[in-house]
Write a structure and sequence with these properties.
alpha/beta, 7 strands, rod-shaped
Length: 339
């Protein structure tokens, strides 16, 4: 029997469509023959869950979403079919939770229970809805949002009251106060800069002063023994002075001063030898004349020594030409000549 070309093309088309459907469902994680272990979970909101989404337990992927079906009458009763990759032993009190992730696909996380009875093929797990990351964040931000709203309302009321209270004059005064504050702030900034320069460890006056103080304290520490010895000597000296009869010394000194005053009074009163020597002009003139005659005699002796000393047997004494006044100083340095 010969098969015509139209029959061949039709058969190939049917086979291709069948393979396409099987491959598409296989890629989606569905098997038309529905072989394997299947469990179910009911939700009121699948939160974007679609077939082929992974199913985890303790972080391990144990299956995938096989099918999602909704009740024909109530859309809040959605049945999710889960196909397990292997015959895992899952406690029958486990809970299936949908996890939403804005950066990835949604998934089902099975929170394992502690029961020793295992779930069987076709059983339904308990389910629970969680808010997810964004839901938790929104729930946590709701009280903060309410407080912010309340604060903004209070701030708006406060601003309205302020606008009511502040007349143009008051606003002008506030502007002047703010201008003064700006000027004061600029002065403070300048002062702080100058203070920073002053406090600079390298160039500031305070830094130099501290260095000088440090050097002074080091010198004190280095000469501590000498300072202690000096203070000890001062203490010993003060002890000796405290034990000295200062009053007696002062009395003796007063007596000596009185006696000295008495002697000086006698000298000034021309009484006694010293007083006469100091105050008698005649005695002074006589002493002056005597010294002058002595000088003349000595000069004549130098000029005419033979007149006073003659050692010659046949010679005669030099007479005449006696000096009547002292010779000049320069003539004394010349050798004596014969008269």
């Amino acid at each position: 029997m010969k098969i015509n070309n139209e029959t061949k093309v039709g058969a190939l088309t049917v086979i291709a469509i069948t393979l396409l459907v099987l491959g598409f469902n296989f890629l989606k994680g569905r098997n038309l023959f529905k072989k394997g272990t299947f469990i179910y979970a009911k939700y009121t909101d699948t939160k974007g869950l679609v077939p082929s989404n992974p199913v985890f337990a303790n972080g391990l992927q144990i299956g995938q979403v096989y099918e999602i079906e909704a009740d024909e009458q109530y859309l809040n009763n959605i049945i999710v079919t889960i196909k397990l990759l292997d015959a895992y032993k899952i406690p029958n009190n486990s809970v299936a939770v949908i996890n939403t992730n804005p950066l990835a696909t949604s998934s089902i996380d099975i929170k394992l229970g502690d029961n020793t009875n295992w779930i069987k093929n076709g059983d339904t797990l308990r389910s629970a809805n969680i808010n997810g990351l964004l839901g938790d964040l929104t729930q946590k931000l709701e009280p903060v949002t309410a407080k912010i709203t309340s604060s903004l309302t209070s701030l708006d009321t406060l601003l309205k009251n302020a606008n009511t209270v502040l007349d143009p004059n008051t606003k002008g005064n506030l502007q002047q106060v703010i201008a003064n504050l700006v000027t004061t702030t600029a002065h403070l900034a300048k002062t702080s800069a100058e203070l920073e320069v002053m406090l600079n460890n390298q160039t500031g006056n305070v830094g130099k002063t501290m260095k000088n103080v440090e050097a002074f304290t080091k010198n004190l520490a280095a000469n501590n023994d000498k300072i202690t010895q000096t203070l000890t000597n001062v203490e010993a000296t003060t002890n000796k002075l405290s034990k000295t009869d200062i009053d007696g010394v002062v009395n003796k000194l007063n007596i000596s001063v009185d006696r000295l005053n008495t002697a000086l009074a006698k000298v000034n009163s021309k009484e006694g030898t010293v007083g006469k020597l100091l105050n008698d002009e005649t005695l002074y003139q006589n002493l002056a004349n005597t010294l002058l005659s002595l000088n003349i005699l000595l000069d004549d002796l130098r000029a005419h020594p033979k007149r006073y000393v003659n050692v010659s047997v046949f010679g005669k004494k030099d007479k005449g030409n006696y000096l009547t006044q002292p010779l000049p100083v320069d003539s004394l340095k010349k050798p004596a000549t014969k008269p």
